[in-house]
Structure formats: C-alpha cells, structure tokens
Specification:
Elements (H helix, E strand, L loop, with lengths): L2 H32 L6 H15 L11 H20 L8 H22 L14 E4 L2 E4 H23 L1 H11 L1 H6 L4 H23 L10 H15 L4 H21 L2 H18 L14
Antiparallel strand pairs: 1-2
Helix pairs in contact: 1-5, 1-6, 1-8, 1-9, 1-10, 2-3, 2-4, 2-8, 2-9, 3-8, 5-6, 6-8, 9-10, 10-11
C-alpha cells in the first residue's frame, strides 16, 4: 500500500478514534463516580448530533461555532438524566440504574424520531469542509478539526482533574465516595457535575461525528457498544485506557476495513477483544475491575 494512502488512513482512523474517545471518556467518568454503567451514553451522543442538526439553521456559521452551545445544553441534559435516572436509585442494586438509563435512551430515541424524523441527518462541518495539502498528502479539514477539538477537550478535562480543587473533589468521589463525604466533599454535587461533564462530552462527540457519518435516532445503540468495548480493552476505570481503546476500535474500522473489508475488520476487533478478556481481564492499562452493573 502506498505511503500516502497509509498516512491518509491513519489520519482518518485517529480522527474517528478521537471522537470515539470522547464517547468512552464520558462513559468512564460516570462509571467511576457512580459504580454503575450509563447505558444512555450512546443515545446522548445521538442527541448531541441531532442538537447540532437542529441548531445549524439558526446559527449560519461553521460547526465549530455550535460547539459551546452544544456543550452547555448537553451538560444541562446530563444534570436532568442524573436527577431522573440515577439519584432516586442511588444506594439500590446497580441493575436499577442499568434499567433506568436504558429507559432514558429509549426516550431520547423516540423523542428524536418525533421531533426530527427517522431520516439520516448531517451537521455542518467544523470548518469549511475543504481539504489541505501537506506536501503530497491531501487531508480533510474536518479530520484535522476533529482531532484538534477532541484533544483540546480531553486535555482540558485532564487539567481540571489534575490541577483544580474541583478536579480533586471529582477524583475523591470516584475513588471512595464515603471517605470523600467524611472529608467534607459534596459527593452528590460531584456526581451531578460528572454526569454533566460526561454528557457534554457525548454531545461534543455527536457534533464531531454527525458531519461525516450522519446521525439517526437509532445510532446510539452502536455507539454505546463501542464505548463499552473501548473501556473493556483499555481497562475499567482507566481514563487513558478508554482513550486508547477508542483509538484501537477506530483503527480497526478504518485501517483493517480498507485492507480487507468492514465485516472482517469487525470480526478481527471482536477476536482481539476476546483475546484481551482471556489474557488480560483487567484491560491493557491494568486497572483493577470493580463491581459494575
């Protein structure tokens, strides 16, 4: 395969993986803070994409201008989801949250169908939608913009968690909520903030994906599966692992499918997942598995 073709495939894979990383990152943040799986995460990505589609006619500007609005509105939706689907069930068996978040996803799917219809929709490109020439390599501006936006958001999250008082409180809540509460950390407020952050990242991923891959009301089912696989590959509870797992999935989808075919790529991905589960159940980053829903 030509070197330029490999470079193009690698860039496309990294761009897709960057968007998937935001999905997985939001998933693992809520997982760490609550100990339960948010099965609405994929449908929240869909909601972010649909929100970008709905806002596009109102904001005659490149898609990057929609990003702050999508982040704020999706964070508000995350607060609503936590109040409706998690807080009333906190302290009960995690299967309750498992069912409630599935219900939230179904509500989002049907709501999107009623409001916007079942047809595939596309959000505007982040920039112009054109291409750039880097030497002999021609790259899509959208791919570069996706990588840049995802890197900025992930870097901002890492900075907040590592350098701010809010981040320390969020990490304390994720590591040991009872001890954090005993030390004066407002655990409930931190859980609400985590849902808001995770949902905002889901919305950003929806905006990033909805231009090249379109978005439909049922797209969330595939995305939650990919988030689950990414977290399993990287290691439960590991933020770097979630990002690495998302990149692995995207490179299978783009790279292996280009050389062979998409069904073969997906088959190879699941074989890899099985090998990891057997050989290294704690995931590639070695996080110790905790009890999950």
């Amino acid at each position: 395969m030509h070197v330029l073709t490999v470079a193009q495939l690698l860039l496309n894979g990294v761009a897709l993986g960057a968007a998937y990383a935001l999905v997985a990152l939001g998933f693992v943040l809520v997982l760490n803070a609550t100990g339960a799986v948010n099965f609405a995460q994929g449908d929240l990505v869909m909601a972010g994409g649909m929100l970008a589609v709905a806002l596009a006619p109102l904001v005659p500007a490149p898609g990057i201008a929609l990003l702050p609005v999508v982040l704020v509105l999706m964070a508000a939706l995350g607060l609503l989801v936590s109040v409706a689907a998690y807080l009333p069930l906190r302290g009960r068996p995690h299967v309750g949250v498992f069912i409630s978040t599935i219900a939230v996803g179904i509500v989002l799917q049907n709501g999107a169908t009623v409001l916007l219809g079942p047809e595939p929709r596309a959000a505007p490109p982040l920039l112009s939608g054109g291409t750039l020439r880097l030497g002999e390599l021609v790259v899509a501006e959208q791919s570069l913009a996706i990588v840049a936006v995802a890197a900025l958001l992930i870097g901002a999250q890492q900075w907040v968690f590592a350098r701010t008082q809010l981040g320390r409180r969020l990490r304390a809540t994720a590591q040991d909520p009872e001890m954090a509460r005993a030390c004066g950390v407002p655990v409930t407020a931190m859980i609400l903030a985590t849902f808001a952050l995770g949902t905002a990242y889901a919305g950003a991923a929806g905006l990033l994906l909805a231009n090249q891959f379109f978005v439909t009301p049922t797209a969330g089912s595939d995305l939650i599966l990919k988030a689950y696989i990414a977290v399993t590959l990287g290691g439960w509870g590991s933020v770097p692992g979630a990002v690495a797992g998302a990149l692995v999935i995207a490179l299978f989808e783009v790279g292996v499918s280009a050389v062979l075919s998409y069904p073969v790529a997906m088959g190879a991905l699941y074989v890899t997942l099985l090998v990891v589960l057997v050989a290294r159940p704690q995931g590639l980053f070695g996080e110790v598995a905790r009890r999950r829903a």
